[in-house]
Backbone:
């Protein structure tokens, strides 16, 4: 039995010596009893254990750092769980629906605050989440003439495959005859004045000299989605043509054209704020400087020289709200809190922010209450499902939008 233990101890000492790179002669096996009973043997055993411990510590200190497990970490070292916390970028369809629905939501959210003083939204909701509230003759979530006219434009574009000015004008007239709760004074005069559809706005401008309201901006969400796939020149040209149906001042045409272009860029997943200089380059030279001023990065609504019912501060305020916030909800809060023409400024802001952030960023507590009655069309009311379907249909016409004339 002693011989067997002697052999095992010898093998162990030899193996440990090889692992610790100690010469085999140093580790030659000794008789078991001699090693176990001799003080020298005991000291040798303890020295061996100390050497082994030191060697292990040295190995740990010089070992290379462990690499992230590729099954648990991405290429940048962040865990896939962390990466999953970042929502995916909205698809083009998400952005298109966000444009149309976002504009309608902004319209309905801002309507009860129309003509209020600056700070009106914060005074109502503080720093908490805003809610759809009634007021000013509007039910909670009820959209106004801004969205009514946007729907009419979109449905005409789909029916005719492009701009049919006579048809759009006729739809506007039918709507105006349906006694809507709100209609812009200028728009009402143009639609009900009895002049031919292709001359009414120009004649009104000749008589009054005033036609730079924001009424063509407020209804542009649907046409911007429809023409986005046709490219910069085509979408801006279509915007001018549609704006001219009710607004004789070219300032309104150019503002609507810029809005179309910024939405086009956003639908492609690019930054509309970075596209402002390119859009301005396409603006009529006689109007470019004024538009450049209100769309400049350092412009803010406090610099406006007109009420925000005018086309310049309306679009300027919407771009400012987009620039100074980081979410759809915050952009609408900023727009409405400016006071004044809150429904239209918020409708334009909602179109832009919806194109940037997508429909997923629009709070469900707002879309649940959203509804769009259409005066002149019986008891027809559009809600989220119908607006989503409309936006999807408009987005399906990439590159096909064109002016088809009154008989198209």
Residues:
């Amino acid at each position: 039995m002693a011989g067997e233990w002697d052999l095992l101890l010898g093998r162990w000492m030899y193996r440990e010596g090889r692992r610790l790179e100690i010469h085999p002669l140093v580790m030659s096996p000794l008789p078991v009893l001699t090693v176990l009973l001799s003080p020298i043997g005991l000291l040798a055993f303890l020295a061996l254990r100390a050497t082994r411990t030191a060697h292990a510590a040295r190995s740990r200190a010089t070992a290379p750092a462990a690499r992230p497990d590729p099954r648990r970490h991405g290429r940048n070292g962040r865990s896939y769980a962390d990466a999953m916390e970042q929502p995916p970028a909205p698809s083009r369809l998400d952005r298109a629906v966000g444009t149309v629905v976002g504009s309608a939501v902004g319209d309905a959210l801002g309507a009860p605050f129309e003509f209020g003083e600056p700070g009106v939204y914060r005074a109502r909701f503080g720093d908490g989440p805003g809610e759809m509230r009634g007021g000013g003759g509007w039910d909670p979530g009820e959209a106004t003439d801004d969205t009514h006219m946007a729907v009419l434009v979109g449905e005409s574009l789909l029916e005719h495959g492009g701009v049919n000015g006579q048809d759009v004008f006729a739809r506007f007239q039918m709507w105006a005859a349906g006694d809507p709760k709100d209609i812009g004074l200028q728009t009402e005069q143009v639609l009900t004045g009895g002049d031919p559809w292709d001359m009414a706005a120009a004649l009104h401008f000749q008589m009054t000299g005033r036609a730079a309201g924001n009424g063509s901006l407020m209804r542009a969400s649907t046409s911007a989605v429809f023409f986005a796939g046709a490219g910069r020149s085509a979408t801006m040209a279509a915007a001018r043509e549609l704006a001219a149906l009710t607004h004789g001042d070219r300032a309104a045409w150019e503002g609507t054209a810029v809005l179309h272009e910024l939405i086009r860029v956003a639908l492609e997943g690019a930054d509309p704020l970075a596209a402002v200089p390119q859009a301005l380059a396409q603006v009529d030279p006689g109007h470019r400087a004024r538009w450049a001023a209100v769309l400049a990065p350092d412009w803010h609504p406090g610099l406006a020289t007109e009420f925000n019912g005018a086309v310049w501060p309306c679009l300027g305020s919407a771009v400012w709200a987009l620039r100074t916030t980081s979410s759809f909800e915050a952009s609408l809060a900023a727009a409405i809190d400016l006071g004044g023409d809150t429904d239209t400024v918020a409708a334009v802001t909602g179109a832009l922010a919806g194109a940037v952030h997508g429909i997923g960023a629009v709070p469900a507590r707002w879309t649940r209450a959203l509804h769009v009655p259409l005066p002149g069309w019986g008891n027809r009311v559009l809600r989220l499902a119908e607006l989503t379907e409309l936006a999807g249909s408009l987005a399906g016409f990439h590159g096909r939008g064109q002016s088809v004339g009154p008989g198209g």
User: Anything to note?
Assistant: The beta strands are 372-373, 381-382. The chain has two domains: 2-57, 92-395.
